Structures are given as structure tokens and as C-alpha cells.
Amino acid sequence: MTSFPKTFLWGTATAAHQVEGNNFNADFWVMETTPGTIFAEPSGDACDHYHRYAEDIRLLSELGFNAYRFSIEWARVEPEDGLFSAATIAHYRRMLACCHEHGITPMVTLHHFTSPRWTMRLGGWESAEIVARFARYAERIARDLGDLIPYYCTINEANLPSLLAVMLSAPQRKRDDAPVGADMSAMRNPRETPWWQECARRMGIAPERLNPFLFSNTPSARAIVCRAHEAAREVIKRVRPEARVGITLALVDVQSRGGDQVAQRIWHDILYSFAPHLKGDDFLGVQNYSRMLVGPDGPLPPELELTQMGYEFYPEALAGVLRETSKLGLPLIVTENGVATDDDARRIEFIDRALAGVQACLRDGIDVRGYTYWSAFDNFEWMLGYKMHFGLIAVDRATQQRTVKPSARHLGEIARRARGLALHL
Ligand code: BGC
What is the Cα 35 distance to its own chain's centre? Predict the structure, then answer.
């Protein structure tokens, strides 16, 4: 068995809006709470991680992890255009310091889907004005907190709108017990609903200005996202030359069943078209959950057992995606990989098979530097609410009590062994 490098980052991942709770200055909060919403439920208190981060980080460290990927919430740090909250920045400083005190390397995402409401007044991710605003926020974080941040992911899944467009075109196989929306049909034409109009009205803007990140999939929005990444990287590197900066991409393992041209087009749309904008990055964050089968006419229906998300249970997809992304020549970090299931034994199997793939890649000389499982906690799965259970740790949302699942101990022990630490077993 190839051993993992001693420096390998072993961790879990979260995003502010999905775990912190009460992120009411974000665009998503309005979308979740406006009548007619396509969200299964509002994020509400989430996992109250904003207040419980210290016990959560201590728990992750005790489990054996040495890395934690989380996001800093722009909507909290800059509640109005140009108005920065020193108190919020101090909060994130305490959180970063807490990671370091527990031997955890923080990996900070600057934008994980949510944006401050005020950015929608500019036109959101369809407005070129957001580029300078995002860079200004990145600069503030680098200046005020950069001494504690070794890794930055500028924009989470910069390509997700492109991938979603492909996924929405794929035939779905809906699980019988799938929650409302798991077939993603609600994502198809949200702009044409009265709900969208009402969201815009509540934000005091014309509906055309409402361009949240996840719902902006025009070529212009894609170009703006890429420019925002480049501008943020430039400013972070200027302020903190030692920082390692990258982007993360949502990637399915595209497998051709006689549809090579279609597969190539999809790889282009979700990966290679981003490559020119990643020159100068220090790593690429690889995020993978499953594969996609394609034939000559496009995506094919899934064949294997489905997860809660309706994805094929296929952990080998991670290795496929690592092999494809390695062609870009950047060091790779698995910034998200995981499975939504209530059967924790299946999660353990998923992790073991995914990590076997990472080991095979390492054996073949692919430069993989870390693995952060999505997610530390069962949390707010966007449109699908709290019914999806990706977590290594369960959260009782009434009491906020954390319950460590066997999979958390399993992955923690793998990390401890790889790091040469004493095992808990
Ligand atoms: C996102 C997470 C999400 C996860 C599971 C990724 O697309 O970055 O926010 O919860 O996948 O669906």
C-alpha cells in the first residue's frame, strides 16, 4: 500500500452559510425565506457553527484531522458596500487561531455560493463591478487575517453553473424517497417564477439584477467569475506572497459510452475552459461526488445504486477526476468528496474506495496534497435543506448536540495512521 506523504492534509470541509446559521445578510437568505421558494426549508440556525466553532474544531482535531476547510462569509465581513465589520473579522481571527492551537491547517474559501445582498444591487455575478468588490474583500481578508491563512480557495466551484447546466440536461432517475427538488426540476426555470420577482422586490431591485452566483450561467457571468478569481489571487499574492492560492472546481468523472465527442465537450466546459485562468495558481481544489455517463446524444441515465442526492454511488470517480485534472500540471487538493447517506457503513466504504483511488494516483506520480471530506457535519444542503446527510458528525438541530458517527472515527484513524500518530483504537 502506498503510504500517504507525511505532509498530506487530512480534513473535512464546510461552508459558512451551510453551518454557521442566521446568515441573513446573504442573497440566499432572501431566496430561502421568500414565499414560493424553491428551497425545501430555510437555513435558519444551521449548525450554529458561528458560536460553536471552538468545540467543533477541537473535536475535529481529536478525531485525528490536521486540516479544516471552511469559508469566511463575505456577507458578514462586508455587510454594506465598502462597510467592513471589524467585529466579524475579529471573529474569524479567533476561529483561525483556534485551528492553529489545535494543530489544524486552515484552508479558507472566500466565496462559497453566497454573496452579500448589496452585490445584487450592482447586478450580482452578471455585473463586471463585482470583480473589484470581490478583490477588495479578498485584500481585506489577506491584510487582516492573512498571517493565519496558509491556503485560500478564492471561489468555490467556479464552474458549478456550467456543470449544473449539463446535469440538468441529463435524464434523471428519481429515488422513491427523494425529497422535493432532488430531481433538480425546481432549478430549471427559477427566473420565470413569481418567487423570483418577489425576491427581487424584497431586495429593492429589478428582477434582471438578481444574479446570485448559482443562478448565473451566461458566458459573461462565467468570464466575470474567472476575472474575480484572478483579481483576488493577484491581490492576495501582493499582500501575502507566501500564501497558496487556488480555485475549486466541481467535477464529475465523465465516462464515455460511445460518446467521446460529448465527453470532450463536457470536460471542456467544466474544466479545460477554466485552465487559462488558473495560470499562477498554487493548487487546484478538486471536488467530486460521482460520475456521468455520456453517449453520442448526451448524458445517459445512471446505472448504479443512487445516493440520497440521486447520484450514482461510485467513489472511483475521484481517481478518474484526479487523473484528468492532473493534466493541468497544478498540485491537486481534494477539497470536497463525500456521500449523502443515512447508512454510515456505506459512507465508510465510500471513503475507503475513494482513498484507494487517491493512493493509486499517488503511486502513479500524481501530485495530490490533501483530502478534505465533505462534510464535517450534516448541514444545510442548499435547495434540498437538511434532509441530505453528508456529515461525519450528526447534528441535532433542536439541541445542536453533535454525535460522532463511526465514519468520523474511521477517517480520523486513517489520518492518524498516515500522520504517524498513536491510534485511538
Ligand atoms: C458544494 C457544497 C455542497 C456539496 C454537496 C458542493 O457542490 O460545494 O456546498 O453541499 O457539493 O452537494
Answer: 27
